[in-house]
Predict the 3D structure of the following.
Amino acid sequence: MNFPHDLEKAIFLQNNSPVNDFLGLTPREVHFLVYQPYSESSPVRLRSDIDSDTLDRIPLFRIAEDYMRIIRRDREIKLTPLGALPKKVMVELYEKRHLLDDGIESGLNKLSKEADCIAISSMRHVLELAGLVKKIRGRLSLTKKGLSLMADDQRTPLFVTFITTFTEQFNWGFNDRYDVGQIGQMAWAFSIFALHKFGDQKRTLDFYSSIVLTAFPSFLLEFTESYRPKEDQFKLCLGVRTFERFLLWFGLVEVDQKRAFLDVDSDLFWRSDTLNKVFRFK
C-alpha cells in the first residue's frame, strides 16, 4: 500500500520524535527497547568490553561461575529424587556469600533444599535454558558450549549468554505468585534506562514505578482490584521482579534497606557503578 507523501512524513515524525512520557526517547526507540533490547537500534546496549573487575561485582553471575566449576570438578551432579539440587551443592554455593538471602540470613529459613534459595534455583534454570548445562536421567553435566565458555578469556561471552538468557528466556514469574504475565520483565530495559537517567540520587520505588506506568499505562490492565489499588500491586511486582530479583541480583543497583526484607515503601535505590560498565546508553 502506498501512502501519500505527507502521511508518510507525519508517521515518520511521530515515530522519531522524542516523547516526554518516554523520558525523551522516541516511539521507535522504545519499540526496540521493549521488543529488541539487544539490537543496535536499542538505546540501551550491552558493552562488549566488560572487564573482569566488573564481572566480579555481579553476584548472580559469580554464583553461576562457581556452580559450573562444581560441575566441572565433579563431572556431574546427581539430582534429588524430586529433581532438585542436593543440599551439599546448595550449601557450597551459598557459603561463597556472593548473594545473601534475607530469609536465610534472618533465620526464618534454613538452607536444606533448592527451594530455600530462589537466587541459586533461578541461576540453575537459566544455565540450562542457555544450553550451558544439560540434564540427562537425573544428572546434570556441562555441555560442550558450557565447557568452552569457562575459559578465562571467555568470561564476557559467558556473561552475555547468561544475562541475555535471564532477560529473554527465563520467566521472571517463575519465582513469585503474581499472575500478571510479563510485568516487570517486559520493558526491563526501560527500567535500566530510567535508572541510568535518575539513579544518581537515592529514590523510592514509587518514583520508578510511576515512570514505568507513565510510559506503559496498559500494564495496569494485568491487575484486578483487590485489597490493594492496582498501582500498589504493580509497584510490589516491579519491586520484587525488577529491582530485587534482577537489578540487585546483577549488582546494577544499590539499596538503602531499612529492614531485613525488601520494603517497597521505604527502601531507597540508586544506580551502582556497575550499571554503566555493563550497559552503554544513547
In short: The mean pLDDT is 91. Residues 56 and 62 are 7 Å apart (CA to CA). The two ends are 33 Å apart (CA to CA).
